[in-house]
Amino acid sequence: MSVTPVTPARRVRHQARDAAAVMTFSALTSLSFAAVFLLLAHLGR
Length: 45
Prior knowledge:
mainly alpha, single chain
């Protein structure tokens, strides 16, 4: 009987790619919200 996991461990480059994707999504979401609020503030004058 083996104690080796059935699925291979994720490589560091996969984890780094996932982290970069999360950071990119977060940055784009933040910029989108900032742009919307800036537009609303401009239109609210």
